Amino acid sequence: MNKLSSKIISLLFVLSIGLAACTQPLTLEEKLNQIPDVTVQKITSDTTYAEYYELYFTQPLDHENPEAGTFKQRVLLGHHAIEKPMTVEIQGYNIWTEKAGELSKLLNANQLTIEHRYFKNSMPDSLDWKYLNIKQAAADQHKVIQALKKIYKNKWITTGISKGGQTTIYHRFFYPNDVDVSVPYVAPQNLVREDKRIHKHLATVGSKECRDKIYQFQLACFKNKKDLLPLAKTHAEQKGYSFSMGLEKALDLSILEYSFAFWQWGGTKCEDIPSSDSEASILFKHLVRVSGMDFFDEISLKPSLAFYHQALTEIGMYSYEVEPFKPYIQYENDLTFDHVFPNEPIRQFNPESMIKVNKWIQTDAEKMLFIYGEWDTWSATAVDLKDNTKCKKFVNPEGAHGTRIRHFPAEMKSEIIKTLEEWLEMPIEN
User: Which residue has the higher pLDDT, 206 or 23?
Assistant: First the structure.
C-alpha cells in the first residue's frame, strides 16, 4: 500500500468516526436543552420514572404583547420512555407533589406537571392582576405542551383536580387540538360570581336526618357564640392566626363554612357530629376539625390570593347563606369572599368567559371524561353536558372531593377504562 492510499484510508476512518458521532442519538436532556427559553435540571424525585427533570419556561405575561414582560414557569417532567403516552397534570395552583398521578400510573405514561401562573415558583415579580385570566394561563400550557410534543409523539392526555380540573377544561377550550383526551376531576363550572346552586345542593345532599343534624350543630354554635369566642381567641393566638374581618366574623364564617366542608371532604360521619346540647368546648373542637379557622387567616390566604382573584372576577365562587341563622348573626346579605381583599375595591365579575366555555362543553367539546363525587359540594356546579355525547361524565355514588377513578364501583370503573381505551385507541393493562 502506498503512502497516498494509507492517508486516504486514515482520512476515511477519521470521517467515519466523526459521522458516527454526528448521528449518535441525542439524550433526553440534550433534547430538552434545545427547547428555546427553557432551563433544564435533572433532579432526583419520583423513582418510578427512569429520569426526572425540573424545567423553567420563560413565559410572556401577555401572550399577545411580548413587550409586557416575562416570568418563569415551573414544569416537572417524569420520563419513562419516549414511545410511551404523556399525561399532563395541569395545576390550578402550585405543584403539590412530584409523584405520578392516577392517570400516569394507569397508563404507565410519562408525566408533565405544569404549575399555574401567579402561584409559588411561577410568580411574576409584579402582581399585575390583569394578566391573570384563563386565556393567558391556557396559552402558558399550550406553549409547554407544544414544545414537548416535538419530543414525545405518542398519545397526549391532560388532567387536573378541582381548580386544576377547571384549568384543564379552559386549556382544552382554547386549544382543543393540543391533546387527544382530557380527564378533569371534580371540576366546578360556575356560571356566576356566587353560584346559588351550591345552596340547593346543601339543602338536598345526603339524608334529611344528616342535613338536619348539620343544621342543628351550626345553630348550636351560633347560639353558644358567646362561649365559643374566647375559645376561638385562644385557638387563634396559639396558631398565630389573624383575621382581616375580625375574630367574630371569622368565627361566623367558619360556622357557615361547616356544611360546605362537611360534604366536600366526606371525612366526617353524621354520627360524629356533637349533639346541640354539647358543651362549648366540644362544639368548638369539632367545628375547627371540620371547618378550620385557618381558611380565613390572613397568612394562610396569601398563597391562594391568585385563586380568589380568578374566582371573584372570572371563574366564580360561592357564598354563605345567612337567612337560616338570621336571629343569631347580624348580616343583611349572604357573605361573599370579598374579605380576602380587605383594602381593595370590590372585584367585578365578568361572566363572558364561563358562558362561552359552558356552551362549548355542551356542543363542541369532545373526548373529555369528567369525574365527580355525588356528595361533594362542588358537584353542585358540575358540568352539564346536555346533548353532547362526544364527552362523558361519571359521578361516584356518595363520593366526595377526593373522588378518583379507583374509588368507583367496579362496573362504573370498567366503563371509564373502556372509554379511555376507545378514545386513546390503546389497551389499558393496569
Answer: 206
